[in-house]
Amino acid sequence: MLTVPARRDRTRFGVLPWAVGAVLLIGLFLLFHNFSSKTAPTSGEKSAQDRPVATSPATERAGDERPRKKAAPATAKRSPQPDEPPAEKPVERLAPPDPDDPAVAAVLAAARDTSATATKTLIASLKSSNEVVVAEAANALVERGATEAISPLSQISLETAAGSGLSVIDALGRLGGVAGESDKDVAVDRLLAMLAEEKARGARESPGNLLQIYEALGQTKDPRAAGPLEAELLDETVPRAAKVIIVAALVAIGQESSRTALETAHAQQSAAQGADALDEEVRVELVGVIAKALEVL
């Protein structure tokens, strides 16, 4: 019969293509596995994406387009922090009090003594040629509210006061703020005279003295000080940082008439632009300070 051989032929020729295909698949699998074992990273090896690429400066400049943060130059100015004041009065560095100096020992002892005799000793010390003695005496007189010291304080020249100048100015402002009308007038008159003197003198210590004078005039709370302070606020030669202190002084005095100068200054500063990044920060701060002052006055 022809049916059986025909069935065998179909079976033989039907299996052969499948067998050949299976052999090819197995061969491809082994080839792929062998290739993968050579190229795949081991457990302790990083892949090409994870490994750092060694680059030279030239290839970094040519191929790395990521923005790099430039290092700040050594001479760059540090911008003020949000919680820092926009301006800081230069502090005149005095030598530490020398307890072995008889004059210094005497003024320090008087500062600890609250008697009327000690107060007279402190007032007499204001005439000393030793700047440390004068500064210590002025500070002690402020602490005890000795308004009788205003007159001798007003007789001190800032040109010869040297390192004690800031303490003298501060004492006039603080004591003038708690003094009676007569003594207050003396303090304010002297501070206004100092303002004119320091603007004209232009000495190394004058900028620091002027900042202290602005603050001291505010401490007196005398309406007569408002006009000169308003003029300083609108003076283009006065630095913006100083004007922040002037605005604070005008608020302390509290004259509603100061609104006109404040509004003018606010318009001027709002339309201006700082000379550099730091000056621009101070300008923005000044605009904000003036705006707050206008809310108060």
Q: Your description of this structure?
A:
Helix 3 (102-112) runs antiparallel to helix 4 (116-125), helix 3 packs parallel to helix 5 and helix 8 (165-178) packs parallel to helix 10 (206-220). The protein has helices spanning 3-39, 57-63, 102-112, 116-125, 131-143, 150-154, 158-161, 165-178, 181-201, 206-220, 226-234, 240-253, 259-271, 277-296. The protein starts with a helix and ends with a helix. The protein has 297 residues and is mainly α. The longest helix has 37 residues, at 3-39. Helix content is 65%, strand content 0%. Residues 1-93 have low confidence and may be disordered. It is built from 14 helices and no strands.
How do the helices and strands line up, and which of them pair or pack?
Elements: H1 3-39, H2 57-63, H3 102-112, H4 116-125, H5 131-143, H6 150-154, H7 158-161, H8 165-178, H9 181-201, H10 206-220, H11 226-234, H12 240-253, H13 259-271, H14 277-296
Please state the structural category.
mainly alpha
Residue-averaged pLDDT, rounded?
A: 78
Output the radius of gyration: 41 Å
Measured as a percent range, the helix fraction is 55-70%
Instruction: Enumerate how many helices there are, as a single number.
Output: 14
Outline, from the CA principal axes? elongated
Order of helices and strands: HHHHHHHHHHHHHH
The proportion of residues in beta strands is under 5%
Largest sheet: none
Query: How widely separated are the two ends?
Result: 125 Å
Number of strands: 0
Low-confidence stretches: 1-93
